[in-house]
UniProtKB/TrEMBL annotation, chain A:
Belongs to the peptidase T1B family. This is Proteasome subunit beta. GO terms for molecular function: hydrolase activity. Transmembrane segments: none annotated. It comes from the Eukaryota.
From TrEMBL, chain B:
The active site is at residue 30. It catalyses: Cleavage of peptide bonds with very broad specificity. One of its GO terms (cellular component) is cytoplasm. Coiled coil: none annotated. GO terms for biological process: proteolysis involved in protein catabolic process. The lineage of its organism: Eukaryota, Fungi, Dikarya, Ascomycota, Pezizomycotina. InterPro entries: Ntn_hydrolases_N (IPR029055), Pept_T1A_subB (IPR000243), Proteasome_sua/b (IPR001353), Proteasome_suB-type (IPR023333). It comes from Tuber borchii. Pfam families: Proteasome (PF00227). The keyword Magnesium does not apply. GO terms for molecular function: threonine-type endopeptidase activity. This is proteasome endopeptidase complex.
Amino acid sequence: MNHFPEAWGRPRNDVYGVYDASHLQSSMPNQHTQSPIVTGTSVVALKFNGGVVIAADNLASYGSLARFTDIERLKQVGTHTIVGAGGDISDMQYLHEKLLDPLIIKEEYQNDGHHLRASHIYRYLSKVLYHRRSKFNPLWNTLLVAGWDDGKPFLASADLLGTTFSAPALSTGYGAQLAVPLLRRICPDEAAVENITREQAVAAVEECMKVLFYRDARSLSKYSLAIITREDVESAEGETKERVNIEWKKDIELQNQSWKFAEGIRGYGAQVV
Amino acid sequence: MESKPTGNLSIDGIHVDMEHLKKGEVNLGTSIMAALFDGGVILGADSRTTTGAYIANRITDKLTQVHDTIWCCRSGSAADTQAIADIVHYYLQLYNVQNHEPPTTEVAASIFQELCYSNKDQLSAGLIIAGYDARHKGEVYSIPLGGSLHKQRYAIGGSGSTYIYGYCDANWKENMTEGECIEFVKGALAEAVKWDGSSGGVIRMVVLTERGAERKIFFPDEDYKGNGQ
């Protein structure tokens, strides 16, 4: 038997010549910061009187290739929260399968009547994201956390740099440039939230998804939408309790697209035909 | 001291970055094609122009006329291909006046090639030229990035074309009818648009026959079905 670990798994020195082990010592420092590979684009969300609506398309792109068209980028976390993810899909899956799902399970297992709500999920994610960026090994995502918390609608953003902020109208990716200005016309500030109805909010978000399909080359016309509201429930004992209700709409196709006018566009300058 | 590589030359001093766009330049990330059938030729293109991932124009017309029945499909830099097409258009008008007869498709393709080859370092243009004349019937010429000229029965180009090499190879037939060729081009471009993020919008077509040039358009929200107007 050969006792020497350096000799295991490789050809013998006396037969094939001395092994060049220089590759084992790296001249470069260990690098972690990656590039996103399979990616999701914008997530759009808007608060309204009594809840939040959040939407994201079903596309995962591989560079410019529209590789997977059945991806769900809105995920329910616990009973009170939806997390929408843009950016690297593998990091999104890690976040959900390895961090958030076990987190919810551990909390529910306590069986103490306490449930993690939107602000808790948000705080947790913010800290994880910032911690990873500080190690130069980010989770390459921009997340929108939408839900119900403390008797009010909750909506906030956290990204791969650990940057966090909250507003009644938010969007990631191209949506930040294209959708947010449209949403802010409906809802310029927190005070305006109580005058927006659920129907208005859903219509505004659907209009934004249409604009993004027109203008974002990494978007898809099929998307999912979730509406988080609160309702009063009569319990068996006759007490009214608050319960958070999450309504899903999946496989929505964009409606009322404007393309017919293209027929009249000919050439790029002088051409008439 | 190392000298910086100039222009689009990469660090190894040998390979050239052919996809390089100048600052602010707009890309016709594209799906284009042209195909012969029995009685003429059809050009087809999507309508998306991108700057990075932003769609600068969602209803672009990439099918450009350089003579009555000689048209070209443009891919690559929008500015470069427009400039080239305008110059060829001028030369073909001059040809018409000086020779008292319309130019053949071969003449047009030859002028395109002269421009693309001589200026290959400055240009980012992938062109497909298609034309109909009574003597030669339909013809298709492809001019890829380097400025070489290739006469073909059908040609595909642009970033979206990579996804339809298999489709076209499997579905192409000699001597198709006009209707069959429309379905071939439409099916191929719909598939390219489906997979390529840099292609999209409406599908435009131009049918060149002895009748002249006829435009067709198909819309994404109708799944590209419809009669083409």
